[in-house]
Amino acid sequence: MSAGTQVHANLTEEQVREISGDLNEPDWLTETRLEALEALEELDMPDVIRTPGRDWTNLHDLDFESLVDPLNAAEDKDQVGPDEAEVLAWSDAVAEHEELLKEHFGSIVDPQENYLTALSTALFSTGTVIYVPEGVDAEDVTVRTEQNSRSLFNYTLVVTEESSSVTILERQSTGAEQDEQYYSGVVEVAAGENSYVQYGSLQNLSKEAYNFTVKRGVADTYATVDWIEGNLGTQLTKTEVSTTLSGDSSETQIVGAFYGHNDQHFDLDAKVWHRAEHTTADLVTRGVTDDVARSVYEGVQDVGADAWDTSSYQRENTLMLSDESEADASPKLIINNHDTEASHSATVGQIDAEDLFYMTSRGVDPRAARNMLVEGFFVPVLEEVDVDELRDDLEELIGARLRQRD
Amino acid sequence: MSSDQDHLQETDTEARFEFKKEENAAVRSGKGLTEEVIRMISEDKDEPDWMLERRLRALEQYHNMPMPSDWPGMPDLSELDVEEIIPYIRPDVDKREGVDDWTELPDEIKDTFDKLGIPEAEKNALSGVGAQYESEVVYQNMQEQWEEKGVIFCNMDEAVREHPELVKEHFMTTCVPPSDNKFAALHGAVWSGGSFVYVPEDVTVEMPVQAYFRMNSEGMGQFEHTLIIAEEGSEVHYIEGCSAPKYGTHNLHSGGVEVFVGEDAHVQYSTVQNWSKNTFNLNTKRAICEENGTMEWVSGSMGSKATMLYPCTILKGRGSTDTHITIAFAGEGQDIDTGAKVYHNAPETSSTIESKSISKDGGRTNYRGLVHIADGAENSSTAVECDALMFDNESTSDTMPYMEIEESKVDVAHEATVGKIGDEDIFYLQSRGLDDDDAKKMIVAGFIEPITEELPIEYAVELNRLIELEMEGSLG
User: Which family does it belong to (chain A) (predicted)?
Assistant: First the structure.
């Protein structure tokens, strides 16, 4: 299906120029935005899995015409970090770091990769640039975004210089709720030699929101890019979290936790491209589906022909709490170098009846027993989270959602 | 087979499988797919009108369907020009429907099957044998004891005439309709030959029945249809083997297999696929399982240029079971894209998929599998295990499973590993006095053992030999 039909009649070059002008962007950025706008006509929606008789996610039915309101973006934002690192609002970064932006903006996530990345590039009005100089260890960088408008397009760039490290927590939530909202985020991470990035994200947008997010990192030699991805909000989420291991001995970990209830639909991709020697990847996702929620998971471990001595592991586990929920999973291995140790596994199931029986036989109330088992199910994922705030909040939100059930 | 192991010792693939015979056709269709060609095939077979109508309908569907193109990582079919394929060649034999005595066959055909070891196997290990040469079955025989019990094992063309009610009901209707995919539609239009197996209630056919499919002519397509109906409480094991000489142009094999597994029935379908490396092998195989029925697919894919084959089981009845065991071996220039498909449509159904693949010398294997558990299929379980072994860095090994779970009371597990042949394992075996080649062969034999042990001993031996043959070239 061509995306051409999606192009907004009400989306104009003038609007893009206005957004870019308000941010005092240099011409090359304005041009990049305009090119993305123009490309919309040609671009397709992001890939979704289709099997005979089944589309795992349907993005074509989304009415972008009414969802996108480019000139009325509104948000509350916190961008804080330690003094050693620079945590800048987009307009400040444009003023102070043009060369840095020129080097990295759009170099990791191609603005014209698909219709939604192009839309995001053309229209983003807010963003954060995190720059960590050589040798600096920066902890507790926090970026909070509260969406108060119909649509919000957000951009984040993280650049770590040699032997630096940074821990980032990003959160998205909704302030003023509307009947339908659209959040779009593009995150690019350029991890320099021997640097370390942990990027934690907690998405808890309103239940009426649609969310499209791409987070992608490139790890240089000896660098590590770790992602933590918590998804709780929205009615429909389509995300990709991915790392290209382009430097020898680089590593990545992608940890995901999700909990879908009501009629939520999560389409979550975790991908790694091994493109150098001695690289390691570990992908771990755990999630729960309840009520009539549906989860779709695609994991890809792609080992290039030059990626000698690769280690790559992937696990995905889904727990179904209700009979009406659905869980689709497709963990893929693409192996072009035989000097590889790779494995993946995926399971879908419900709470183990024997576990439940054991606990109730010890006098635990069945409801409490069930909640404890679900909380326990998330432990292997939560253990991987370094940032206390993120781990505590995830635990609390999961607990709260469980207690909401009868 | 055991009494004549000598021919199996031959290590030259060409001498064993890829030898060519002069083409000696009685009837040969034109190239391509036109209504005229379809009518000519049907007329040559003296078919009833209803079958001709089905063929023509399938032809129309074929023309209306696009070539598959949007599958991630699918084999390259761009060199396949269906319009250049000769869909129908009837070999020049005296008796249509196949003789039941090998000596009545023309020398070159008899010699072909002798070389392939079929008559020998028949004596030792089989209840019945069908042998197809080009588009027609030339030999068909079954031991009398089974005929007396009402078992039918005949060629498909004969079944259309002799058992029209059974065929009308089951042939490309509910199991594999031509609309299923483009190559099923193609098959529905030009199918020829193949086997019809009917096992009455509560009859157990103790030894396997086998069909062997041989393509001899350059540029032809073979489209045999296999229909197996196993009534309540019955049991049968069907084995198919196939091979062809190698040519510079492409051959096409697009078979159709439909299996109806009745209540409490048990069907095993084993395939040893050894098409020459200029053959496109694009098949549709499917089984429907009634209550407590069991379907077992055992597939070894060694040959072909490109294979796209995903045997499918629909677990329709409560308590039915599916087992898939598959080995893929891809050498130079081969793309073996195979796997399994299982639909759990009833409660208490279970499936087990075990896939082993080996790639070397630039070959590509891909496990592509779909497990669907429908809403309401309570207490169902599925376990998928894929292991891949890579010999060298020119080769590719992909794994693409898809799981669709609509029911919560289930147990779903998928696991896959990819690795190279371990240097330590080789070193260990070498230190015990084996040379490098033998060590590698032994490791591979161990790797595929879970599959060979599911086959009757004669076939397990055959499969091991085939793999040894495939390994000869690169290891020497």
Answer: Belongs to the iron-sulfur cluster assembly SufBD family.
Beta-carbon contacts below 8 Å between A and B: 114
Verify whether the Cβ–Cβ distance A332 to B398 is below 8 Å: yes
* Spatial separation of the C-alpha atoms in residues B190 and B38, rounded to whole Å: 6
The model's confidence at residue B464, banded by pLDDT at 50, 70 and 90, is confident
Query: Which 8-state DSSP code applies to residue B68?
Result: P
Q: Which of A348, A356, A374 has the highest number of chain B CBs within 10 A, making it the mutation to test binding with B?
A: A348
Cα maximum dimension of chain A:
70
Contact A335 B413 (CB under 8 A): no
Q: What was the pLDDT predicted at B463?
A: 76
Residues 392-451 of B with CB under 8 A from A: 392-393, 395-420
User: Above 90 in pLDDT, residue B12?
Assistant: no
Residue A2: pLDDT band by 50, 70, 90 thresholds? Answer: very low
Mean pLDDT for A316-330 is 95
- Across the interface, do A337 and B403 touch by the CB < 8 Å criterion? no
* Nearest residue to A110 (alpha-carbon basis) of A39, A161, A49: A39
- Tell me phi and psi for residue B468, to 5 degrees: -60, -45
Partner residue facing B403 (CB), from A323, A330, A350: A330
Each residue of A287-314: pLDDT tens digit?
999 999 999 999 999 999 999 999 999 9
What average pLDDT does range B117-121 have in this prediction? Answer: 86
Whether B74 contacts chain A with CB within 8 A = no
- Among A333, A346, A349, select the one facing B411 at the smallest CB separation: A349
Under the banding of pLDDT at 50, 70 and 90, the label for residue B122 is confident
pLDDT tier at B5 (50, 70, 90 boundaries)? very low
pLDDT average, residue stretch B363-373: 96
Do B400 and A342 count as a contact with CB atoms less than 8 A apart? no
In a domain, A371, yes or no: no
Tokens of B282: 């694009």
Distance CA A226, CA A167 (A): 9
Compare CB distances from A326 to B397, B406, B413 and report the shortest one's residue: B406
pTM (2 decimals)? 0.91
Burial of A5 (0-12, 13-18, 19+ CB in 10 A): exposed
The total number of structural domains in chain A stands at 1
| CA dihedral of residues A101, A102, A108, A113 (deg, nearest 10) | 110
Let me know if residue A343 belongs to a domain: yes
Residue-number span of the structural domain to which A293 is assigned: 3-350
Give the per-residue pLDDT at B158.
93
Chain A residues inside the 8 Å CB shell of B361: none
Residue A49 counted as domain residue: yes
Buried b (16+ CB within 10 A) or exposed e, A149-184: bbbbbbbbbbbbbebbbbbbbbbbbbeeebebbbbb
List chain A residues with CB under 8 Å of B366: none
Kindly determine whether residue B405 and residue A333, on different chains, have CB atoms separated by under 8 Å: no
